[in-house]
Design goal:
Elements: E1 3-8, E2 12-18, H1 22-26, E3 34-36, H2 39-48, E4 55-59, H3 61-71, E5 76-79, H4 86-97, E6 101-102, E7 115-121, E8 127-132, H5 146-150, E9 152-158, H6 165-180, E10 184-188, H7 192-197, H8 199-206, E11 210-216, H9 217-224, H10 229-236, E12 240-246, E13 252-255, E14 260-263, H11 276-288, H12 294-309, H13 318-329
Parallel strand pairs: 1-5, 1-9, 2-7, 3-8, 5-6, 9-10, 10-11, 11-12
Antiparallel strand pairs: 2-4, 7-8, 12-13, 13-14
């Protein structure tokens, strides 16, 4: 196959900043989750933070994942949508920097506002996100590249897309193309809010079954309507051939289609949990598309994600990931 993973997701530029715990009450922000906001609301919050101390970088859940795959030595393709503005250029330049192919060209984009996410990290290492999707909310089936999907080992769908009617259509069409061409389908729930507030839409994607599902413990219990991970994992067998349940500081549980594999955590002092789940998924998908067992891929993902939570920001430098890989394969 030409590509290890074909990702479909929102094109989001992350604005990563630190806030104190009082910030959430003062500015009426729901802490610890991702909330979709309009341009006006985000502009208000950007005035309330210190932009000079904030860091801008390419982001988005699936964007982080394909970046990690390429940094580790894999090959990815990404379909998204940006506007002809500074944020759009930042995002596409970031894809190019990491060797990620895309069918979106800046010169062909239209005027508007690209997506951006205000990532607020608090002293308890929790991340709270307020996202303005901009033109990304108009991502639709027409923005897919059917040939690239056919030439991929995995199609990776970002759960955040269910919040947009057009995005949901794009997910369905991409999955249809993948199923027809025997390309495996992976899905991430992305955030508890997506499972909670868009459960019907999420079930439209998951209901037909997926080959690989990524979820954290909270999302798994919300989706299955259960009260424990033990119950949730049994229910997930009905909709996913294989799945990963991340457990934060307690590691992860992987179901390989036959048995459950416990992945031990790498103990670190957590500074910022933003991007930990994305890094786990990216490193794991690199592993299983490069001849590693699910257990080996899980170990790689656990170590890589532990490095992310020990620093600010959702991504690692390529040199850091290379070191992680070399540490496990030598």
């Amino acid at each position: 196959m030409k590509y290890d993973v074909y990702g479909v997701g929102n094109a989001i530029v992350d604005i990563v900043t630190e806030v104190d715990l009082d910030f959430f009450t003062t500015n009426n922000v729901e802490k610890g989750v991702m909330t979709l906001v309009d341009d006006k609301r985000q502009a208000e919050l950007m005035k309330a933070i210190d932009m000079k101390k904030s860091k801008l970088s390419g982001g988005g859940s699936a964007g982080n994942i394909v970046t990690a795959i390429n940094q580790l030595g894999g090959k990815s393709f990404y379909s998204c949508l940006v506007a002809k503005d500074d944020m759009g250029k930042i995002f596409l330049d970031d894809l190019k920097k990491h060797g990620i192919e895309t069918n979106i060209k800046y010169e062909n984009t239209k005027e508007g506002l690209s997506g951006r996410c205000l990532v607020m990290t608090s002293p308890d290492a929790q991340r709270t996100m307020n996202t303005f999707l901009g033109v990304s909310s108009f991502l639709s089936p027409e923005h897919l590249d059917e040939e690239a999907i056919k030439q991929s080992t995995y199609l990776y769908l970002e759960g955040y897309l269910v919040a947009s009617p057009k995005g949901l259509e794009a997910m369905k069409e991409a999955k249809k193309i993948a199923d027809k061409n025997k390309v495996s389908v992976a899905l991430t729930f992305s955030d508890p809010s997506m499972v909670k507030y868009f459960s019907k839409q999420m079930e439209e994607i998951v209901g037909a079954g997926v080959d690989l599902l990524f979820t954290n413990d909270e999302e798994a219990m919300i989706f299955t309507g259960t009260n424990s991970v033990a119950e949730a994992r049994e229910e997930l067998k009905k909709v996913a051939k294989r799945f990963v349940i991340t457990l934060g500081a307690n590691g992860a549980i992987i179901y390989d289609g036959d048995t459950f594999i416990q992945i031990e955590p790498y103990k670190v002092a957590a500074v910022d949990t933003n991007g930990a789940g994305d890094m786990f998924a990216g490193a794991f998908m690199y592993g299983i598309t490069h001849h590693h067992s699910f257990a080996e891929a899980g170990k790689l993902a656990s170590l890589a994600s532990s490095k992310v939570v020990a620093q600010w920001g959702p991504r690692l430098e390529t040199a850091q990931l290379t070191k992680v890989l070399n540490e496990l394969v030598r």
